[in-house]
Write a structure and sequence with these properties.
The complex is a heterodimer of chains A (105) and B (562).
Chain A (H helix, E strand, L loop, with lengths): L1 E5 L8 H13 L3 E6 L13 E2 L3 H7 L6 E7 L3 H12 L16
Antiparallel strand pairs in A: 1-4, 2-3, 2-4
Helix pairs in contact in A: 1-3
Chain B lengths: L1 E4 L1 E4 L2 E9 L18 H29 L2 H4 L1 H9 L2 H12 L4 H17 L4 H20 L14 E5 L4 H5 L6 E6 L7 H8 L4 E3 L13 E5 L4 E4 L3 H10 L8 E2 L5 E8 L5 H6 L5 E5 L13 H14 L4 E5 L27 H4 L4 H16 L5 E6 L5 H20 L8 E6 L2 H5 L1 H7 L2 E4 L1 H9 L17 H16 L3 E4 L10 H7 L3 E4 L4 H10 L2 H13 L3 H9 L1
Parallel strand pairs in B: 3-4, 4-5, 5-6, 10-11, 10-17, 11-12, 12-13, 13-14, 14-15, 15-16, 16-17
Antiparallel strand pairs in B: 1-8, 2-6, 3-7, 7-8, 9-10
Helix pairs in contact in B: 1-3, 1-6, 3-6, 4-5, 5-6, 11-13, 13-14, 16-18, 19-21, 21-22
């Protein structure tokens, strides 16, 4: 399943919003990929999509605020993953969510 | 004994054993072996072990940086860890290993590709290339078993030599162990140099290629006042160190002929409060509030801000604490504030522009905390200043906001007072309008780092143009003078809180230019106080007049050396 959303955070898919996206993508039992909405046709086998769990790929997209992205998810928790990611990308300022993978020992 | 000239950055002197901190250019790979001879299983394990070691080092560096310098400098390490965990990179590296590539070469190739890709992009993307380089180097050092210089655990008495140091490198240094720093590149207003100063580490920057001739293990003396690196110093030179420690002056100081000059400290985090008072600062001339907002998920509430400001006031019961309202944007990012991505952030939405626009709520909350702190009886006097002012309307709007916040607090029956209000003079526009600003405000404070950047139209981090970034250019001195004159005419006091204020070699000039207050890194307070006491105001004015008449920076420098 997939969804197309406009990236609302003014920073676009850069440093902090990008790492949030990576974290969120990793949280679900689903394979999530993301790309520019208008890259859908004819840009090779991957249709311009990159894995959403890769910081390198996500920041490499260089998506700016106001651009639309296509999010594709596949797996048992695909629907939940899409909800969470759409939520993240359409919220101007991320609030709460202090988790960082529980590595604070 | 050999003496190498550079630029003094932290005006302290230290002596110790030279130790090179090498960047990855020196991490040369062994020749590629026959793929058949490579054991992929063993190489995969080496790679996994290297990641574990690198992760531990990154987390340690993060914690130490947060502890010693502040959360702002620590956040860079979070990005490093995210890249270390990138599944795409890991898969590619493991695939290369399976084809018979040794781990170090696989790491170097794949990170290299990613770095090239990011370097081709603009702005923030280029910074990601630096992050990737840093992570690659950590992995390569482990894989190549290169004697890793762990910056945070250097042995006591180390003088660190480097081509350049990043702010994160500098932030991870242990000030008790590092006797000094010398770098081949960089200027004294780079972020790394400022961090070294806030850690009181003697530093000389911009030594140039000559630095390469110094070897590990040599005894070197870093003289951050003279801007010299002395290799194998003689007895005279060594003995001079002990005499150099400037005595802390607790009292307020006046010039030799009796004019009062306040010598205050710049403070950017709570741990810096104690060293500031220990070094005899007459209060705080620049209290940066950004640290309250950094590395967290949401903005600090009013009470938390109130507590932080009253803690500063308590530390200086008889002095003034000048708080700068939130100054983000430019090069200072706060992730949850969702700051705009701009092609030219230094000319974009930052400082008061955000406080009167997108961040009006945040500005009001901060002002509520400040007005309450102004009424508290815990300590010294509070003053509040607005950053990045360019227009009179910004000041009238900001003052109107202060008044409306006061009205709200009154209606709620909350104790409050309106503190002294001032503007930062960081832009040519503000300096031009200093008379009108002075009429509307109690004080002006000249931020020379940004002012120099904007007057000279030069990026302060650009090493290639470091000659431009010098407040001794007559254009900058005249802009300062215009401000001090206008402030005096308007009966507003005028201070300076840039790096220029902390250079004892410039104290006489600054007194002559009419500054009432100088605010600086705490480490330079004793030396500047000592210098103020020697100054004669009339001579200082003559010096200032002569400097203002100069046409070139070289003439000004020559004048100061006479």
């Amino acid at each position: 399943m997939e969804r197309t959303v406009m990236v609302v955070p003014e920073a676009g898919l850069h440093a902090r919003p990008a790492s949030k996206l990576v974290q969120t993508a990793n949280r679900f039992d689903a394979e999530v990929s993301i790309g520019r909405a208008d890259d859908g046709a004819g840009s090779g086998a991957d249709n311009g999509l990159v894995p959403a769990n890769s910081m390198l790929s996500v920041t490499g997209l260089n998506v700016a605020h106001g651009e639309s992205v296509r999010v594709v998810a596949d797996g048992p928790e695909a629907a939940d993953a899409l909800d969470a990611i759409a939520d993240l990308l359409t919220t101007p300022v991320e609030e709460g969510e202090a988790e960082d993978g529980g590595d604070d020992e | 004994m050999r003496t190498l000239a550079g630029v003094g950055s932290t005006p302290l002197t230290g002596i110790g054993t030279a130790r090179w901190y090498d960047s990855a250019e020196d991490l040369s790979l062994p020749d590629e072996p026959d793929p058949e001879a490579v054991d992929p299983a063993a190489e995969r394990e080496r790679f996994a072990d290297a990641r574990t070691t690198a992760r531990e080092a990154i987390r340690l560096a993060r914690d130490r940086a947060a502890d010693r310098v502040g959360e702002e400098e620590a956040t860079v390490f979070d990005a490093h860890e995210a890249f270390l965990d990138d599944p795409g990179l890991i898969d590619d590296i493991e695939a290369a290993i399976d084809e018979g590539t040794p781990a170090e070469r696989a790491v170097d190739d794949r990170f290299g590709d990613a770095i090239v890709q990011f370097e081709g992009m603009e702005g923030r993307m280029a910074e990601r290339a630096d992050d990737l380089r840093d992570v690659r180097d950590r992995l390569l050092r482990v894989l190549l078993d290169v004697d890793t210089v762990d910056l945070s655990t250097l042995p006591p008495g180390t003088v660190l030599l480097a081509e350049r140091l990043t702010p994160s490198d500098t932030a991870s240094l242990d000030p008790d162990a590092v006797a000094g720093i010398a770098t081949a590149t960089g200027g004294r207003t780079s972020h790394a140099a400022i961090i070294a100063r806030s850690l009181s580490i003697p530093a000389v920057v911009g030594v140039g290629d000559a630095l390469r001739a110094v070897s590990d293990g040599e005894t070197v003396l870093v003289d951050g006042e003279a801007g010299e690196l002395v290799v194998d110093p003689d007895e005279t030179r060594r003995a001079a160190i002990d005499d150099e420690e400037t005595e802390v002056v607790r009292d307020r100081v006046t010039t030799a002929d009796g004019r009062a000059v306040e010598v205050a400290a710049n403070v950017g985090s709570e741990p810096e409060l104690a060293p500031a008072s220990d070094r005899g600062a007459d209060g705080i001339g620049l209290f940066r509030t950004e640290f309250l907002f950094l590395d967290r998920e949401s903005q600090p509430d009013e009470d938390e801000q109130y507590e932080a400001v009253t803690a500063a006031l308590e530390r200086f019961p008889d002095d003034r604490v000048v708080v700068r309202t939130l100054d983000v944007g430019g090069d200072k990012d706060v992730p949850y504030l969702d700051l705009p991505t701009e092609t030219n952030p230094f000319l974009g939405r930052r400082g008061i522009r955000l406080s009167l626009g997108e961040h009006a709520d945040l500005f009001e909350t901060q002002l509520r905390a400040l007005l309450r702190a102004a009424a508290s009886d815990v300590g010294g006097d509070l003053a509040v200043m607005f950053p990045m002012v360019t227009r009179i309307k910004e000041v009238t709007d900001a003052v109107a906001t202060v008044e409306s916040v006061a009205t709200d607090l009154e209606a709620e029956g909350v104790d409050h007072a309106i503190p002294e209000l001032g503007a930062m003079i960081e832009t040519p526009a503000a300096a031009s309008m200093a008379d009108a600003l002075g009429d509307r405000l109690d004080f002006l404070s000249i931020g020379t780092n940004d002012l120099t950047q904007y007057v000279m139209a030069v990026d302060r981090e650009n090493d290639a143009l470091s000659e431009y970034h010098d407040p001794l250019h007559p254009a900058v001195l005249r802009t300062i003078h215009r401000t001090t004159t206008a402030a005096a005419d308007a009966d507003a006091w005028v201070g300076m809180c840039g790096e220029m204020a902390g250079d004892p070699a410039l104290t006489e000039l600054l007194v002559g230019l009419g500054l009432d207050e100088l605010s600086m890194s705490a480490v330079t307070v004793p030396a500047v106080k000592k210098r103020v006491r020697e100054v004669d105001v009339n001579e200082a004015r003559e010096l200032a007049d002569a400097a203002l008449a100069c046409e070139t920076r070289a003439e000004v420098r020559e004048l100061l050396e006479e």
